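Suppose a colleague, Dr. K., hands you the sequence of a protein chain of 169 amino acids and asks what its three-dimensional shape might be. Before reaching for any lab equipment, you can write down a predicted structure in token form. Begin with the sequence itself:
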Amino acid sequence: MTDLIATEALQTYARFVATRDEIDEGAQPWSVLADFFTEDAAYIDPAWGRIDGREALRNFFETSMAGLTGHGWSTPENWTMAQGSRLVSQWDQVLGHREDGSPWQVPGLSILYYAGEGLFCYSHDMLNMTHIGRTMRDMGWKPPEAFNMPPRNPNRDVSLPAAWTHLAT
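The predicted structure, expressed as tokens, is then:
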């Protein structure tokens, strides 16, 4: 049973990544990523903190990514593994490209919990924000007008939503 759950989680995540790639290309809005989460999901972002609930996630994706899409940012996937309902993914946050064509990039990790029926109930993205800041400084990045700053004191609670704590075992 655990192998079936892991397989389903990996298949769902593959669809999530394909959707994210379409978003990076400008073919879909960021808000569609919320459709991969349960109504009570928690999403932990390294800059924005904890966001609870699918509709709050829908708004978060649009707000947090405003001014970044279409400026060379992308999130290529490197590897993914799953054990039961727990999935771990390693990806790169590409912030654009140097004049020689090489990417400005920072590695990242995500931990997701799969709730079944094609939905995740939890996602925790991890990036070294000092590395991000230094990369942005080195590349001379200036925020576009549409860019939104993350909150000054975000919620740093990383716990699973109460309804899904049984998945942690």
